[in-house]
Specification:
With 302 residues, the protein is of the alpha/beta class. Helices cover 42% and strands 15% of the residues. The chain has 2 domains: 124 residues, Rossmann fold (3-Layer(aba) Sandwich); 115 residues, Nitrogenase molybdenum iron protein domain (Rossmann fold, 3-Layer(aba) Sandwich). The strands form 3 sheets. Strands 3-2-1-4-5 form a 5-stranded parallel β-sheet, sandwiched between helices. A 4-stranded parallel β-sheet has the order 8-6-10-11. Strand 4, helix 6 and strand 5 form a beta-alpha-beta unit. It is elongated.
Length: 302
């Protein structure tokens, strides 16, 4: 999800002047266009700016690249994003209002919980902004794809994307699976994922029982390593970023206790980009987990 740190960049006097200039430009543009309402959405937007990594992905999957004016810098990193190759051909932004206004967008899309000050300023000067939340299940994921496709004037592309997702889900549903092994997800800073989240539904779709949900954890919450070690999980899913920079947040994923747990349960490394955002990549996550839950051949360690 969008970094709060990135949204705080720009406190120098020079940057302050840039913000003032950008706002002046925005007010002038709004006046020149007859004080257009932020509710006015063109039927087929031609200059779209995205301020969130997850809206970036849907935008890149559903819109023609020639209509995408900018996406976030996060989406250009293949370690974190599924559409990095295409994103690198498009100008990047860091969620700053002056970066957006200079592009003269006819539509800005953003996450409901990120770049809040930028979104507020854009609405103030009459820029058309649409915000998208975080889907909690596959049904909400489908609905969000449809909403985005309609907003972009590309409903057929949205239905094609959903049809492909459902076809893959149907194929995976026919695969044999063990009797609901218990699994727990461990994220940086010791966070896990419980009930009422897309990750919980992904685990269920893979035939797994979410131990965090059994422990009464709703959505996202922290869990002690002792709980992980003493719990009766069969699979421990480590939410990782391949080749990511070292950080204190990720240290828990390399704790010696976890290495020793590998003697009695399966350790599964699942790239975070497969389920950070709601889209086709979550099917890759389900397939990876199905493979991990498959019985280990006799004589081999998990």
């Amino acid at each position: 999800m969008w970094s709060r740190k990135a949204s705080m960049v720009g406190t120098s006097p020079t940057m302050t002047r840039s913000v003032v200039s950008a706002l002046a430009l925005g007010l002038w543009l709004a006046a020149a266009s007859g004080l257009a309402s932020a509710d006015d959405v063109p039927a087929h937007p031609q200059r779209i700016v995205s301020l969130n990594m997850c809206t970036d992905e849907l935008l890149l999957r559903l819109a023609s690249p020639k209509h995408v004016a900018s996406v976030t810098w996060l989406s250009q990193d293949p370690r974190n994003a599924n559409m990095a190759e295409l994103a690198r051909t498009i100008p990047a932004n860091h969620g700053l209002v002056e970066q957006v206004l200079v592009l003269k967008p006819d539509l800005v899309i953003a996450g409901a919980y990120t770049t809040r000050s930028t979104v507020a300023l854009l609405k103030r000067v009459g820029t058309t902004v649409r915000e998208f939340g975080v889907p909690r299940n596959l049904a909400e994921m489908r609905a969000q794809i449809r909403d985005m496709a309609k907003l972009l004037g590309e409903p057929e592309r949205g239905e094609t994307l959903i049809t492909g997702i459902d076809a893959r889900l149907a194929a995976l549903a026919d695969r044999p699976r063990p009797a609901h092994p218990r699994a727990i997800v461990l994220r940086p800073n010791g966070f896990t994922t419980g009930r009422g989240s897309l990750v919980d539904e992904i685990l269920t779709a893979a035939g797994l029982t979410n131990l965090a949900a059994e422990l009464g954890i709703d959505n996202y919450g922290q869990i002690a390593l002792e709980t992980v070690a003493l719990g009766k999980a069969d699979i421990l899913i480590l939410n990782t970023t391949p080749d990511g920079a070292p950080s204190l947040a990720h240290e828990v994923l390399h704790h010696p206790v976890l290495a020793r747990l590998g003697d009695r349960l399966k350790l599964v490394a699942l790239p975070s980009k497969l389920w950070t955002c709601a889209g086709p990549a979550v099917i890759d996550a389900i397939e990876l987990l199905l493979d991990a839950a498959a019985p280990t051949p006799a004589g081999k360690r998990p």
